[in-house]
Design a protein that fits this description.
Immunoglobulin-like, 11-stranded parallel β-sheet, about 400 residues, single chain
Amino acid sequence: MAYRIWQGDGAAIAQSGTITTTAPSGSTAYSMTVRDEAGQDTVISYTSTGTGIPNFAAGLATAWNNSGSPAAQRATASAATTGVITFTADNAGVPFRIAATSATAVVGSYIASVANAGPNDWNDPQNWEGGNIASAGNDIIVARGSGAILWNLDQSGSGNFASLTVEEGANGAIGGTDGASLQLHLVDSAAATNLEINGSGQIFLTIHRTATDVAEGAVIVTNHTYKPSAGQHGINLTVAQHASEVLTIPTLTVNRGNVGVHASDDASACKITALNMGFVTSAKTDANVTLGKECHATTIEKTGGYITIKTTTDTSGVTLVQDEGTVVTEGAVVFTTMTLNGGSAVLKSTGTVTTLNINNAFVDMTKDQRVGTVATVKLNKGGSLKKSTTAGTVTSIQSDDSVTFSAN
């Protein structure tokens, strides 16, 4: 496999291009469609007054400049008396996209005069070591000290990549502009490490599977140190699917970092066979994982960290073992076995827990009145359970040690 190394040090060049208009026919609405980095389109319309080409072109240019669309505001439009509208990027290295024009010869297609280039554009060869842009089969390395990757993120059509590694010391963001993520197809492999994320830049990444009936490769997240604001994640990992096949991640290991895992809009679910959470320096705070409502993990093993599970779509049952840290259940997640050897758990899920082993840990069932049923609680030395009279049901309590119950 060939390595392709992102450095992000290309020179910034301002994009420019033109649209040529001809005489409009009467009072008719014509349009240009601007597309943002996330693929969302905004249609900018102008109704001709039938007063000739110069006024028509000027009207279209003014409509663009006054549209209020953030994507359109990256460029300024100016009209010539010949009917040619010129678009020039306001900032070198920040591109704009005109995806379509009216289905008529009156408003021609956008023709690029100067392509965007700059230190944040995936498609700029200056940003890659040796000028080699990543392509099918390559191992991609985002080098330490490299610039952010913000533009032309829709790389799913560029082939199946072998892996993506973000090195420690890589401080630039990946994605995030307009809410967009870097779209990557990764070669299917149940054994290989396809994804390793270090560094300190906020990351938005969507993984696509490349074939049916084959699992995606392991995803390992280590030493990621971005500190997100409340309600955000340092690593935003979205998983997609191939046709009707649900994407499966055999192993997701989070040793440090704030990671949110979600299914894409067109995916019915995403599954993680084994989710492992560890730590580098702090067992309580290094790792923070949120599983979205479409995501399901079969086995979770935690030596530390904080996990919030919002699963609602899969009721086949999770096996969880926790030595330290916190687990919060929401949605309708179902547990076959939850074993807590330390730390705490807050149960707010409407789903059931077949067996809850509390060993030197604390479990709180009072935070949500909709909390479901725990069939069997095994309460052992150092363990405690807090339950209100109205929230949840505990069918039986067992213990290998003497137990003292108290009420208030």
